[in-house]
């Protein structure tokens, strides 16, 4: 076992080792048909893993997505739908 | 050489250490210590921020935060205040923060008592804090400064509480040779924390530990406790060289070498005990004294070695684990397990009841465990 | 936009957690030159299981009730070291209104240089949805369950804003993630100020409040639109701004989407309770100069 840092001080951002994508049963599908680039999907994602690829193209990091469906529920133009996760 | 109130001697040591954040809540009989420090800040003798917090829990929390953010700190308390901050006290040790505290030892409620005994600090003996008991104002002054050196040593990084008898030490006037600024600079290096809260290099303090790691985290504190012993001994050794005052790091021995009965007592009562020892000797009883200075970590093997050959050991506790007897007595019994010595545990001096020469003489002759200064008829 | 958030993914918050949305929006707005002192609770537990930490800013957790006091100490230390970085204390509603209230009050009263952010999910959610001083009237929790002789929590929600304002701190504001620009603007404004500041963020909890995780933002929106959670700002104890909306919704719209209030929709007693809750919302509206919900026109002589 590695020696523990004194007082159990932890490294910043090391939670990225924990792949919470394994939790989900649903996953978002970004249709990219009517997107206005409002950014709400990225702002409202509790994991912070929805991101803009280009002006009206968004994607997400499926390593962490828990499938909550907030992005789909909040998209003002219904350009995101939740589908059953293939896994 | 100055005649100083014990509290003042402690405050002067803290001023020499130059903490930058002090947080304290008033409780008798700690008050003079923190009042002296507040005065020193206002007079420009101490460049510290003095936080007048709204409870002891917040006093401990504020020094925890300040220590983690990289500065030397100080707080002081007694009795109920120590218990009120207790969850934070344990947390400071677990987080390996080198906070230094003075505890003006006082009895615990209930019933309420503002007077001196060791119950408060004894109740924190499991906390992971290094615990040192002073017998005189000079000792309190010296040990309070050296507490920082021990706490901050990188092989230790643990908090230290210096215990001083409430009123009897804190409010009594004694001659003290203050440590000079030059001596303090020789004895205490600048604070160099192991880890620090700083936006330039972010770290996370106080994560929680799952069962897979908690044991090792606690073991690390225990190991740091062991590492503290040589650091503390070296600090006292250096004090002897720099200031000419020599204290045995573990305990004082008085007429112990050929003793047939050894009395064990901590704090100011150990000073009075010397007179009781002398009187007993005049009456033909070969008595000796072992007065522990370091209580945590507990110098078990050193105590066992010092008591080799003593037939009866009487431990006077100024605290009690109700339902189980004297606390120091229990630890001495463990240290002496397997040796032929008979250990007798006496309780005395609770709630400010004076530990007189007479009480100590009776203790020396105690044959069975007893609360030797209790008035049985009044229970 | 592939920005590096100041709370990293991989944290263990529930799917759809409103708290993590609010906390991430807040710390992203505050920026990396910040130090956080966090109380025990959902936010702390989900982000810092050793050796993992989701925090990309310096962060410290001690015990449940001392976030404000730890922050005070950190603030003093940074000042002593000449480091100019805002200190944020974070706690849930329990760590603010109940066990944390003393330390919060001390911080405010001393005028310490700390921004205290309370993330209010209206209960002790981390320990399993128990009632806190911030749990609203009639909410079912595990320690105030609804049943034949109970309609849930008997106590009104503690007026934390009132308590905080009595200390006349430099800045007080209420916010919720549904109005993210408003929330981030308030955080940015607050971190640039000195002295004691307080931000109260309502963060819906899908597990504790009983709604589908996809509805977190909508529930927050309804809390504001029903006047149960007005969005305001106060400086030095005086109101400076309140966010107004054209047409409020009835509290029923808000209550009906949460199963913690489901018992209020069965029977006459529930209807009476909901009317009481509506009157709370109406009182808040009157107090803050907001539009009051109107269901049907009131006939003269037949007012409630």
What does this structure look like?
- Chain A has helices spanning 40-44, 70-74, and strands spanning 26-30, 50-54, 57-60, 80-84.
- Chain A is of the alpha+beta class.
- Chain A has one domain: Alpha-Beta Plaits.
- With 379 residues, chain B is α/β, with parallel strands linked by helices.
- The longest helix of chain B is centred in the middle third of the chain and has 33 residues, at 211-243.
- The radius of gyration of chain B is 20 Å and the shape is globular.
- The mean pLDDT of chain B is 97.
- Chain C has a single domain (18-288), classed as Rossmann fold.
- The longest helix of chain C has 21 residues, at 268-288.
- At the A-B interface, loops of A face β9 and α9 of B.
CATH-assigned fold name of chain C: Rossmann fold
Number of strands of chain C: 10
> First CA to last CA of chain A: what distance?
34 Å
CATH class of chain A: Alpha Beta
Q: Compute the separation of the termini of chain C in Å.
A: 53 Å
Strand content of chain C: 5-15%
Major β-sheet annotation of chain A? 2 strands, antiparallel
| Number of DSSP E strands of chain A | 4
What's the SSE pattern of chain C? HEHEHEHHEEEHEHEHHEEHH
Which structural class best describes the helix and strand composition of chain A?
alpha+beta
What attributes characterize this protein structure?
heterotrimer; A: 87 residues; alpha+beta; Alpha-Beta Plaits; two-stranded antiparallel ribbon; 2 helices; B: 379 residues; alpha/beta; Rossmann fold; 2 domains; seven-stranded mixed β-sheet; six-stranded mixed β-sheet; 13 helices; 16 strands
Short description:
The complex is a heterotrimer of chains A (87), B (379) and C (304). Chain B has 379 residues and is α/β, with parallel strands linked by helices.
Describe the SSE topology.
The complex is a heterotrimer of chains A (87), B (379) and C (304).
Chain A: E1 26-30, H1 40-44, E2 50-54, E3 57-60, H2 70-74, E4 80-84
Chain B: E1 2-5, H1 6-17, E2 21-24, H2 31-42, E3 49-52, H3 56-68, E4 73-77, H4 79-84, H5 86-94, E5 100-105, H6 119-123, E6 130-133, H7 137-152, E7 160-165, E8 173-176, H8 181-187, E9 204-205, H9 211-243, E10 251-254, E11 261-264, H10 269-282, E12 287-292, E13 294-296, H11 300-306, E14 312-317, H12 327-335, E15 342-347, H13 357-364, E16 370-371
Parallel strand pairs in B: 2-3, 2-4, 4-5, 5-7, 6-7, 11-12, 11-14, 14-15, 15-16
Antiparallel strand pairs in B: 1-8, 6-13, 10-12
Helix pairs in contact in B: 1-2, 1-7, 3-5, 7-9, 10-13, 11-12
Chain C: H1 18-30, E1 35-38, H2 42-47, E2 59-61, H3 67-80, E3 87-92, H4 93-98, H5 101-110, E4 115-120, E5 146-147, E6 150-151, H6 160-166, E7 171-175, H7 180-191, E8 197-202, H8 206-210, H9 216-225, E9 232-235, E10 238-242, H10 251-255, H11 268-288
Parallel strand pairs in C: 1-2, 1-3, 3-4, 4-8, 7-8
Antiparallel strand pairs in C: 5-6, 7-9, 9-10
